[in-house]
Amino acid sequence: MQPWRAYVLAGRAKDALSEALIEHHSGEGSDFSSAEYRYYPETFFEPYLSRRRKVGFDLYGLLGIARGETGRMKRQHARNLAFFGAPVGFIFTIDRRLEIGSWLDYGMFLENIMIAARAQNLDTCVQAAFAPFHQIIRQHLPIPETEVVICGMSLGYADPDAPENQLRSERSPAAEFATFLGWDSPTQTGRP
After folding, report:
1. Domains of the chain with bracketed CATH
2. What is the pLDDT of residues 6-17, one digit of tens each?
3. 3-state secondary structure string, the chain?
């Protein structure tokens, strides 16, 4: 069904949107409660809470931001809204009448953009940070009310010396999330 819609920004259009978003962010700010969809569960639980915290602590550790330095954390978060300085920014939307299957398709679409970018020696960063700012984004882009702002994406060349680009988040081993069945059967292993 191709349920995606992309607004691709560069130059002054990207800069104007970023300026407006950062101005709002530095004032009253925003959190995911103002997004048009629920990204996180109402209450975190394990193992997801620990995983999320670990990535956050590791990222802020690389950036030299200590726990409780909310001003520095907020400034770092605002870098999302400037597309991390990338020359191209995307805002992705979906028709709000579509259901979860289309959102699953959307995830595959986003990953394919990321893979295609790598094939061209470009780097990307998908950013849910844009979702809570849908009202401001609508003031700058021709997004109808029938569309939900899902996320943004930065596209450009990663700075290999930037501390945040040194982050390698830990991944759970396959044995923690996959159940392997029938692998002892000769037909499943490729043996005659």
Report:
1. 4-189 (3.40.109.10)
2. 999 999 999 999
3. CCCEEEEEEEHHHHHHHHHHHHHHHHCCCCCHHHCCCCCCCCCCCCCHHHHHHHHHHHHHHHHCCCCCCHHHHHHHHHHHHCHHHCCEEEEEEEECCCCHHHHHHHHHHHHHHHHHHHHCCCEEEEEHHHHHHHHHHHHHCCCCCCEEEEEEEEEECCCCCCHHHHCCCCCCCHHHHCCCCCCCCHHHHCCC
